[in-house]
Amino acid sequence: MAGKGGKGLLAGDTTAANKDKKRPVSRSSRAGLQCLSMEDDKILSYNDVVLRRSDLGILRGQEFLNDRIIEFYFSYLDSGCSSQDILLVPPSISFWITNCPFPDSLKDFVEPLKLPEKRVVIFSINNNTDVSQAQGGTHWSLLAYEKNSKVFVHHDSLGNSNQRYAKKLYRDVVGFMGDSESGSSEISLSECPIMPQQMNGYDCGLYVTAIAKLICDWHKNGGSTNNEELWFSALKEVRPQMVSNMRSDILMLIQDLMAKK
């Protein structure tokens, strides 16, 4: 639409259009494109996880953790576990199980995880339900399974925000947790009774990493052989500042691994 008193660009008037085509890309535009390209640069391959330069920016600021960072930290924790009876499920797999549009194919997807062989299984929960939207969602929580207690425990740092998504994942996997002898009918789901709560709107992913580390440490220290209280007593030591410090801890871990490459 033309401005007041001006002329619009008619279909046959190509002068303005040709001028636009010939106009060189400005230095600022080139710099912006270069900056975007650098943000997407691969900085580290760790096991099956590829981290990008933009992931470092997330850890340096007060931002919502993406699934790449959580998957990296899960993989790092898994590498530190000598036992084969604990599994930290990558966020992308947890998401697909919860939102799989083809329920009949779920068995082929879940069975390779060998869930009945695990004493402890850790899942991340995200409130994104759109399988076409990568890096979606606004809140993370953690769902942990403990075989001896026959229980899934949901850990949500923002009340019960992700409760329905945790219930969905529980319903989708509970049938795969038991073997032919024990079955899965007795496996229950509960909310963590003393889950620490976040003090802001962006640290939920850090609570997931903190609780995952806590459970792994509990398991390595023989927790699964004395499971009356599970890992709940250790949760009392999880405080907001400690969780917030995990940003710099994970950042330094990535930088150390980059330096060794």
UniProtKB/TrEMBL annotation:
<feature type="region of interest" description="Disordered">
    <location>
        <begin position="1"/>
        <end position="30"/>
    </location>
</feature>
<dbReference type="Pfam" id="PF02902">
    <property type="entry name" value="Peptidase_C48"/>
</dbReference>
<comment type="similarity">
    <text>Belongs to the peptidase C48 family.</text>
</comment>
<dbReference type="GO" id="GO:0008234">
    <property type="term" value="F:cysteine-type peptidase activity"/>
</dbReference>
<dbReference type="InterPro" id="IPR044613">
    <property type="entry name" value="Nep1/2-like"/>
</dbReference>
<dbReference type="InterPro" id="IPR003653">
    <property type="entry name" value="Peptidase_C48_C"/>
</dbReference>
<protein>
    <recommendedName>
        <fullName>Ubiquitin-like protease family profile domain-containing protein</fullName>
    </recommendedName>
</protein>
<keyword id="KW-0378">Hydrolase</keyword>
<dbReference type="GO" id="GO:0019784">
    <property type="term" value="F:deNEDDylase activity"/>
</dbReference>
<keyword id="KW-0645">Protease</keyword>
<dbReference type="InterPro" id="IPR038765">
    <property type="entry name" value="Papain-like_cys_pep_sf"/>
</dbReference>
<feature type="domain" description="Ubiquitin-like protease family profile">
    <location>
        <begin position="49"/>
        <end position="215"/>
    </location>
</feature>
<dbReference type="GO" id="GO:0006508">
    <property type="term" value="P:proteolysis"/>
</dbReference>
<dbReference type="GO" id="GO:0000338">
    <property type="term" value="P:protein deneddylation"/>
</dbReference>
<keyword id="KW-0788">Thiol protease</keyword>
